[in-house]
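User: Teach me something about this protein's shape.
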Amino acid sequence: MLKGINKKFRLDVYITFIGTLVSVLFIVSSYIWEDYAIKILSILVIVLPTIYIIGNLIIRGILDRELKELEQNYEEGLFDVDEGIEDMKLEIEMLEKENRKMRNSKQHN
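Assistant: First, the predicted structure itself:
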């Protein structure tokens, strides 16, 4: 699980780095080509949120996968606990029978 957290954190850092790099490149480009500055910045307004949206979707996919794994492990754990409870009930019944037999044999002696 900790490995998954590190993966998500690194992805978040990469996405932020890419978004920052794209922003800087588009802003510098708008100064270099002043005649196209409005078009360049308009593209930036569309591209930058798209980068963050795609990054968040990727991270959400990772979180969903981890949640499914946790749910599966939880279900398997519950099944194992139920089996253990049934085994304990059977053992208690067996011990109670043995205890009754021992009492009965002591009472007859």
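Now, about its shape. Helices lie at 2-32, 37-108. The radius of gyration is 32 Å. If you'd like, I can walk through any region in more detail.
User: That's plenty for now, thanks!
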